[in-house]
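Task card 7
Instruction: Convert sequence to structure tokens.
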Amino acid sequence: MNRSDPTVQPVPLSVVQQVDAADTTLHNPKRAVLSLGSNLGNRLETLQGAIDALEDTPGVRVKAVSPVYETEPWGVEAGTQSPYFNAVVVVKTTLPPSSMLERANAIEEAFDRTRVERWGPRTLDVDIVAYQGTISDDPRLTLPHPRAHERAFVLVPWYDVEPGAVIPGRGSVAELLEAVGREGVTPRYDLELRLPE
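Output:
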């Protein structure tokens, strides 16, 4: 007796092959660290959406997600913008840095990121902080991120997920964080970002 669910359609072979191909691309993946920030709209939902979009990217797997921190905006007068929610995500990827940057920009655009003013408010900021020890002064994508070593809102959540991490040419995240301090980076224990399943 056939009791199969009539609403379940067989998965097309082409889809199965795409999924299998995506999995085999993760041979010899590289480790990348991304910083996420949002200070417009539903900040938590936006950060979670960015994490899910990263996981949905062929050749990218999200491996760790930091706790959420609330921080004052960088580089602007106090009280002129809403606070940010910040987090750090560690991924494994077979994409080269240039493709990771394209994907990061596409995710920002999907969440209506506008680039009107420097240090302006934003629905979503996705920065590639480090990529498998790569050092590059390419103006489109400088690696590691040229200011990550002096920003507590990057170092604090990064330390949470990779306490032994090192920023190439700058030193260990732990030592850099000790020098910068944790002032202005407030943990939001009432909020949580999920690791994609």
